[in-house]
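Example record

The entry below shows one chain as it appears in the dataset: sequence first, then structure tokens.
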Amino acid sequence: YVNEALNVLSKLKMNKNLLKTLFISCIGFGAINAYAQDPEFTQFYAAPIYTNPAMAGTASCTDRRSAGGRMVLNYRNQWPSLPGTFRTVIAGWDQHFDNLGGGLGIMFTKDVAGTGKLSRTTIHGDYSFLIPLGKTAYLRLGIEAALFQQGIDYARLKFGDQIDATQGFVNPTGEVFSSNTKTYPNFSAGALVYTKNFYAGVASHNITEPNQSFENDPYGTLPRRYTGHAGVTIPLDNRRNSKSNISPNALFMMQDNFTQINLGVYINKGPLVTGLWFRQSVGDAGNSDALMALIGFRKDRFKFGYSYDITVSSARSTVPGSHEVSAAVDWCLKRRPMRFRPLQCPDF
């Protein structure tokens, strides 16, 4: 349909900017009932409870020997070279509570995509239950309940009946729209096992596969997202609480027909953190996607990280890369919980 429309307009000798507007608008309108996927982050440990609800309450204070709380802020601008770019913001808090037997977390997300301003605003509530597995290993089981509100700005979309052969998009549209908002609940769950230097977790998001279509299309469901992640922390010196270490990590994620694997390593040296990652899509749409570079700093209670995704697929000429920024502040609890051991996974 898009190709046919472009051919017709080309024959009418309309300018290139109009052709581009039509193309982007058709993409935006097609997103109304398209199969959607959740936003993803390169710095997935900087958004811990977004990655896995079982990570609620795993924060440690600065010296990494006691329990703490944390607040995080994440921003991702994916493919900013496109007119209808994808932007995602997360703000979250989580902390361990010994009298609750685990951790609590709250998270707000805002995701905006496309020329039609297709947006999603979400509030999440998380709880993780801590189970000691002997003296050195721990298991956390997490659950999450969320409320999603999805919206679209129809006024920013363009339709075929608005086209005048000589003036472009000047006519009113005869399209009839349903509601421009959609609100629905969503649920997720996860598990995390960890020791002093090893951690691994699994999570399932969108468990009930809610219908997110503005038209209540039975095929307009949000598919389940499955995540698996694991890593180790290898000290680079013999100090008991070494701040110099190397941490190889892997993340596996699958949603509908899309599957990807992230492989990489963090290097921590004092306040400086660097990282290098590679993202590979597998399956029918498999391709080498991006090389991701990270630099981060930790000073007292504050953390800041920046990463850049370098596109290595055939789309590089159009979407050369993506930006991501994270910031966090943590604090120590006044009294160390009896049932707690901090999770020593990367901060980014």
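Notes for this example: The longest helix spans residues 16-30. DSSP finds three helices and 17 strands in the chain.
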